[in-house]
Design a protein that fits this description.
Helix content is 29%, strand content 18%. It is built from nine helices and nine strands. Strand 2, helix 7 and strand 3 form a beta-alpha-beta unit. The protein binds adenosine-5-diphosphoribose. This is NAD-dependent protein deacylase. NAD-dependent lysine deacetylase and desuccinylase that specifically removes acetyl and succinyl groups on target proteins. Modulates the activities of several proteins which are inactive in their acylated form.
Length: 236
């Protein structure tokens, strides 16, 4: 039977594509100061450093490919109505073929003028544009002359797409969570919006910080975990 599946993903789903996670040992936040490169204060203090950080992430993404977990998530669309809610700023879900994706924390391949998309104006992505895997440099300006910034939600900023994500989780028949440490809110609290009888599957090789009798923890890496998940929901 066709089900509504909400899939919340984090850095772990892209780990087997060679993209570093944030909080594992060797993760990005071991080598960079998160306040410097991923907060609105860091951007105000030293925008050049922030641009260099995201230029490097974009370059890494150019040579990464979707892995079997991204492909299996996209493959769920064959039989189900699937919405991916991702904290990842990479484009590997798109490249794997998923068609409904909510990027909670923005997108690496996009930039926008600094004065665009303010919540006060009603959130719109009209000024956002694609730069692919290219770089942006200090002083680069958008069509209206305003300074360009990465289209990323930084610490200290609102998460405009969270309300859409909540609606998707509320309506889901199944919630699948893959490769997130569930440390960063509001994404980490999304599972609480699942219906009281909605099963929640979590794929992560490590312990998960949430305890709820609806949760089935598949303690595997994303690729192997997705094989198991597909087996479970197809009754194999
Ligand atoms: N398969 C599945 N899960 C994995 C794998 C793998 N191969 N490798 C690691 N993991 C798990 C880790 O055990 C951990 O629980 O992925 C999770 C990664 O957690 P984080 O590094 O904290 O990444 P994430 O949860 O996506 O971070 C959330 O924090 O800094 C911000 O904006 C950034 O979107 C990011 C947010």
């Amino acid at each position: 039977m066709k089900k509504k599946i909400a899939v919340l993903t984090g850095a772990g789903v892209s780990a087997e594509s060679g993209i570093s996670t944030f909080r594992d040992s060797g993760g990005l936040w071991e080598n960079y100061n998160v306040e410097d490169v991923a907060s609105i204060e860091g951007w105000r203090r030293n925008p050049g450093l922030v641009l260099d950080f995201y230029n490097a992430r974009r370059k890494q993404l150019a040579s990464a490919r979707p892995n079997a977990a991204h492909l299996a998530i996209a493959g769920l669309e064959k039989d189900h109505e699937v919405t991916v809610i991702t904290q990842n700023v990479d484009n590997l879900h798109e490249r794997a073929g998923s068609t409904r994706i909510i990027h909670l924390h923005g997108e690496l391949t996009k930039v926008r003028p600094e004065d665009c998309c303010n919540e006060a104006d009603g959130y719109s992505e009209a000024g956002v544009f694609d730069i692919g895997y290219g770089e942006i440099h200090l002083g680069d300006k958008g069509p209206d002359g305003a300074r360009l910034r990465p289209h990323i939600v930084w610490f200290g900023e609102a998460v405009p797409k969270i309300s859409r994500a909540i609606e998707v989780v509320e309506k889901a028949d199944i919630l699948l969570i893959v490769g997130t440490s569930l440390q960063v809110y509001p994404a980490a609290g999304l599972y609480r919006y699942a219906g009281i009888r909605t099963p929640i599957y979590i794929i992560d090789p490590k312990d998960v910080p949430v305890h709820d009798n609806r949760i089935v923890h598949i303690r595997e890496v994303a690729t192997r975990g997705m094989e198991k998940f597909v087996g479970i929901i197809s009754g194999k």
